[in-house]
Every structure is written in structure tokens, then in C-alpha cells.
Design goal:
- With 497 residues, the chain is an alpha+beta fold.
- It is 40% helix and 21% strand.
- It folds into two domains: 5-243, Nucleotidyltransferase, domain 5, CATH 3.30.420; 251-434 and 455-497, ATPase, nucleotide binding domain (Nucleotidyltransferase, domain 5, 2-Layer Sandwich), CATH 3.30.420.40.
- The strands form six sheets. Strands 18-19-17-16-20-21-22 form a seven-stranded mixed beta sheet. Strands 3-2-1-6-15-14 form a six-stranded mixed beta sheet.
- It is globular, with a radius of gyration of 22 Å.
Length: 497
């Protein structure tokens, strides 16, 4: 039997984190989950933070589990996380304070404050980023506006995956794909957009050098080896450190006629292109040009995803009904279609205290009957998500000039067969789902390439295609979905008035 090479993927999401072992045998990659743990905001004095020290402890636990279960060496480790959030370090390399959660309300009003100093069009022209209130730029601007003393002390800003890479190696860098989530990076000139920071009086001195995905950053220090029972040093590799870019790296058959949906708490809908598209049409659509792998750009938009149902499920649990995901999907499938629709991206749903009440209020506001049962809520959310995908896909077709005939859904949401079928029906396009573990798989594939075991992304995507079974969903019920889409567009227009 051919010897396998081992790689660890640290995949940190907004709700949970996982350490997965990727075993490469020269032909296929096998993923095994070693360690799973919860993640989420910690509320302190009215503000939401990440518990990064606990996350670091969980990473070390994953390394220890590997060491104790495997006699063969570990060749690499890479970390991917959500975007936009960061940590500040002092001149000694120590954390300054706690890292804020992107849903914290400190950024309320910061976009408008920024536009008073620098026009929206000028910021987009430099960064090509989608405007969202929690982007790194606006988080830092809130610190300036509130005269936060941490900014005076800070010597280094590290994005979330870069913080853990620093603790794994002692090297401070920012990986390219995560840098492009900040709205502070000039994706065409491949440099920090310091003119934006200067105008907004945000320091740029603490921004580290940017490295390409697939860069070997260094090896584990001896102290970490002792703490985790590692028998030899391990290479830390900056993969595509933004989880979306990592997931896209693992999508088989991604071509000019394909649109991807990375489906989870958020839905990232986009296309892989050879160069950024930064023009008035892209700005009007509020798209983002995110750094991808293999010198590509992911032209995409961050849409609300299964957050709607995750929060609804949490609210039902608080009310005493602990519905499983499978049970909820069953209720949704049985519910009557198209009774009420919502705009998933309305500000009403960004961070409500009670998602069920937010949905009810939105329906009243738009002259619709609110969902009257659990199944009706599920159906309302999933139908609205699918219709929102159609709107985005049509906008991407108009912008790129390419017909997008196939929708490729990856990530945890690709397991939601009801949403996948609704998406095929709403968009009248073939839907192909998988891999479910796209993010971790992309993380491992970048490590395999970086260490010389594979030549490039194109080859690795072929390996993914040969290693898994994908599921297809054919479109149906065109007339009913067309009527629903016309209703949905009126809702979107109502929201924009």
C-alpha cells in the first residue's frame, strides 16, 4: 500500500470549528474529522467578541489528538476562517484586548460616516468590495470615531487565520484572499489601499506583508511541539485562508458557464473570473471582487443564507421545541408553497433578537400574511433564498456576458436537498451539489500543492471530481416559480424605496 501524507485543515466557521485530517495517497484525498467544537459570540458589557484564546486551545487539542492517534508524521497545517474580523497585537506580539465579532453594533452608521470623507464610488474603485457594515474598514473606523486607545498601542493587525498562523510559527503576515475581505486592499494593484486609510485617519503602519495562497510560512516552534506531543516540526501553510476561497478551490468542473454557491450561514454566490470587474455596474450591484486561487478573482456577492433558519431554530428551542434540521425540512416540504416571501438581505434579518418576530413583522410591513406554522416559516425562508439566488445569477450574467447554465452548490448547505431543489426550480437551471466539505478539502489541496505533491488547482479539482459522488437536481414547475419571482422582485423594489 502506498504511504499516505498527512495534512491538518483547521476550518473555523462562525458557529463551529473543526480540525480535519487530510490523507493524500497520491490519487485521492480522504478527510477524517479529528475534533469539533462550538464557536460563537461572547457578550461582554453590550458588545460581542470572539473567544480567540479558546479557539487556539481547540487547535492545540486537534494537534494533540493527531499526535496520539498517528505514528506517521504530519507534513502541513493550514487555517481558514470567516472574513473581515481581526486581532490587534502590541510591539511584543501580545494581544491587545478582545477581537470583536462582525455582528457587533459598533459599526452602525460607520459606512455613512466614511462616505462623508471619501465617496462610495472612490472606495469601490480602489477595492472592488461589496459594502457591508461589518467590513474591516468600518470596524476600524468605529475605533477611530470612538478614540479607542488600542489603535495607539497596536503594532500589528492580523486577520483571524493570520493570527493562528502567527501562533503556529511566529511569523506575522496576511494571506491574499483574507486581505481582500477587508475593503482595504487594492486588488488590481496588489497592495493595501493606504489612501483610503489615510483619508479616514486609520493607521496603516500595522498592516503586514501580504502573501499568496499556498505560501509556506514556517515550522512549528519547539514549545508548541512539546505542548501537543508533535514528534517533528510541522509546516504551517497559508492556504486560501478565507473559507469561501478555500471552498471554491475544491469545486470540480468550475468553468465559464458555472455559478458557485458556497452555502452555509451566509450564501456566497459568484463566478470565478480571470481579472477583477470594477465598474459602475458592479458597484450598483454591490458585488465584491475577492482574491481567489491560481491568480483568479471570485466575483461574488455575500447574501444571507441559512442564518434565517438557524436563528429561527434557536428561537423555537427557546420556546421549548427542539426541532432537528431533518424535522424542519420535513415540515417545510409539506407546507403550502409561496404563502409569504421575504427579502433575505433586508436589514430586518441582519441580527434580530427574535428571527420569528422579524419575519412576522416583515410580512405585515409588506402586506403579506405571516407564516402560520413551523413548516410555513421553513418554506418562506427557503423559497426566498432560492429566488434571491436567481436574482443574483441573472445580475452576474448581465455583468459578465456569460450564460450561467449550471449552479454548483458546495459547503454544509449543499446537504439541504429541499433548498437545492428549490434553487433548481427558481433559477430553471441544473443544480449540482458537493463537495460538502469543500472548505476543508480546498484547504488540504492547497497544502498538497504547496508541498509539491500536486502541480496545480486544475489537477486537484479533477482529483476531487474523481473522489466524490455529486448529486444533480433538475428544474421543474417553471410557471409557479415565475409567478413567485415576479412577486419577489416587487418585494425587493419595495425594500429599496
Amino acid at each position: 500500500m502506498k504511504a499516505t501524507t498527512n495534512f491538518l485543515a483547521v476550518d473555523l466557521g462562525a458557529a463551529s470549528g473543526r480540525i480535519l485530517l487530510g490523507r493524500w495517497d497520491g490519487k485521492k484525498v480522504r478527510l477524517d474529522e479529528l475534533h469539533r467544537f462550538p464557536n460563537g459570540p461572547i457578550l461582554i458589557r453590550g458588545h460581542q467578541f470572539w473567544d480567540v484564546l479558546r479557539l487556539w486551545s481547540e487547535i492545540k487539542t486537534g494537534l494533540t489528538i493527531f499526535s496520539r492517534q498517528n505514528s506517521s508524521p504530519l507534513e502541513g497545517i493550514g487555517v481558514d476562517t470567516w472574513g473581515v474580523d481581526y486581532a490587534l497585537l502590541d510591539r511584543c506580539g501580545n494581544l491587545i484586548g478582545n477581537s470583536y465579532h462582525y455582528r457587533d453594533k459598533r459599526t452602525d452608521g460607520m459606512m455613512e460616516h466614511a462616505f462623508q470623507k471619501m465617496p462610495r464610488e472612490e472606495i469601490f474603485g480602489l477595492t472592488g468590495n461589496q459594502f457591508m457594515p461589518f467590513n474591516t474598514l468600518f470596524q476600524l473606523l468605529s475605533m477611530v470615531a470612538n478614540e479607542d486607545p488600542q489603535l495607539e498601542i497596536a503594532e500589528t493587525l492580523l486577520m483571524m487565520p493570520d493570527l493562528f498562523h502567527y501562533w503556529l510559527t511566529g511569523h506575522k503576515t496576511t494571506e491574499f484572499t483574507i486581505a481582500t475581505t477587508t475593503q482595504m486592499y487594492d486588488i488590481r494593484q496588489h497592495r493595501w489601499a493606504t489612501e483610503i486609510l489615510t483619508t479616514l485617519q486609520i493607521p496603516s503602519r500595522f498592516l503586514p506583508a501580504v502573501v499568496a495562497p499556498g505560501t509556506i510560512l514556517g515550522e512549528s516552534p519547539k514549545a508548541l511541539m512539546r505542548e501537543t506531543d508533535l514528534r517533528q516540526p510541522v509546516k504551517t501553510i497559508a492556504t486560501a485562508s478565507h473559507d469561501t476561497s478555500s471552498a471554491i478551490a475544491a469545486i470540480p468542473d468550475l468553468d465559464d458557464q458555472s455559478v458557485f454557491i458556497s452555502s452555509g450561514t451566509w450564501s456566497l454566490v459568484g463566478v470565478e473570473i480571470s481579472a477583477p470587474i470594477i465598474n459602475s455596474q458592479a458597484s450598483a450591484l454591490n458585488l465584491t471582487n475577492e482574491g481567489g486561487v491560481d491568480n483568479k478573482t471570485n466575483l461574488q456577492k455575500i447574501l444571507t443564507g441559512l442564518w434565517l433558519l438557524q436563528e429561527s431554530q434557536r428561537q423555537w428551542r427557546l420556546q421549548g421545541s427542539n426541532y432537528s434540521w431533518e424535522t424542519l425540512m420535513g415540515f417545510g416540504e409539506q407546507a403550502k408553497p409561496f404563502q409569504s416571501l421575504i427579502d433575505p438581505d433586508a436589514s430586518d434579518f441582519l441580527n434580530p433578537t427574535d428571527m420569528l418576530k422579524a419575519i412576522e413583522n416583515f410580512c405585515h410591513k409588506t402586506g403579506q400574511p405571516p407564516p402560520a406554522s413551523v413548516g410555513a416559516v421553513v418554506r418562506c425562508c427557503l423559497e426566498s433564498l432560492a429566488l434571491n439566488y436567481r436574482k443574483m445569477i441573472e445580475d452576474l450574467e448581465n455583468l459578465t456576458g456569460h450564460s450561467l447554465n449550471t449552479i454548483r452548490i458546495v459547503g454544509g448547505g449543499s446537504q439541504n436537498h429541499l433548498l437545492s431543489q428549490f434553487t433548481a426550480d427558481a433559477c430553471q437551471r441544473l443544480v449540482v451539489t458537493g463537495p460538502v466539505e469543500a472548505t476543508a478539502l480546498g484547504n488540504v489541496l492547497l497544502q498538497i500543492i504547496a508541498t509539491g505533491h500536486l502541480p496545480d488547482i486544475a489537477t486537484s479539482r479533477k482529483i476531487v471530481a474523481a473522489s466524490l459522488t455529486q448529486r444533480e437536481f433538475e428544474p421543474g414547475s417553471p410557471d409557479a416559480w415565475e409567478t413567485a419571482y415576479n412577486r419577489f422582485i416587487k418585494l425587493k423594489n419595495f425594500q429599496s424605496v
